Amino acid sequence: MTAIERRFTLHVPSSTENLAMIREFVSYVGGQAGMDAARIGKLELAVDEACANVIEHAYGHDLSKEVTIRATFDAETLRIDVEDTGQGFDPSAIPQEELDEMIAKRRTGGLGMRIMKMVMDKVWYEIEPGSKNELHMEMRIRKG
Amino acid sequence: MPNPFAINTQTQDDITTIAIEGYLDAHTAPQFERAIEDEIGAGRLRIVVDCRSLTYISSAGLGVFMSFIEEVREQGGDIKVAALQPKVESVFEVLGFAEIFDISTDAGAAVARFGDAGTAQHGEN
Fold it and tell me: Do B63 and A48 touch (CB under 8 A)?
């Protein structure tokens, strides 16, 4: 990221009801950054997946908790940071199975992370057990 | 913030069409899950999910399709997918669902495939 950045932040109670609002927020920021509709669609999906994981797994649907989404962009890159203070996890412990294998085992866990990694250019975690968990994702503003 | 989502289920000639509308995300997926469970529980295993008015899907929605398909096929039925909008179709494709599910361009074509293709073939338009 260069020195000239624009930053947007959304704090929402930890409820899946707020996923639509989160997608609206991300869509707005993507538009401000100059992304085309296809990239905004991917961004919305990745952030939805990240926040749904926080709401359902890190916070266990506890409405008193808050999810924080920060979006920062410059001329080239848009970065998303999703922050929570819930139960952390080991990202490397999530099995990377083939889709047909998951179906045979009736497993659906890990799909969200798979989507995030497929649609974003970079995805990484910072987990501080009992303190703070942060998911960071980056996407180039334009193709290429 | 509203989460517009609606389900309309109709059964004709032993084939159930579940039309879903709006956003299928982690908030609304449980409604869709119950709709499919109701059909399976009633022994109706020939299911078409009409997605022509579905504007958004996340992994929670895809997970519903995934979690029932094996059970339904094992019992001789199928869950066929119809009329995906481009934005939704791209999510199916990202995860390789097009290889697993029988996807048709419209609900009528999906219903017809129960007649001519049974449950063995899938992954073709």
Answer: no
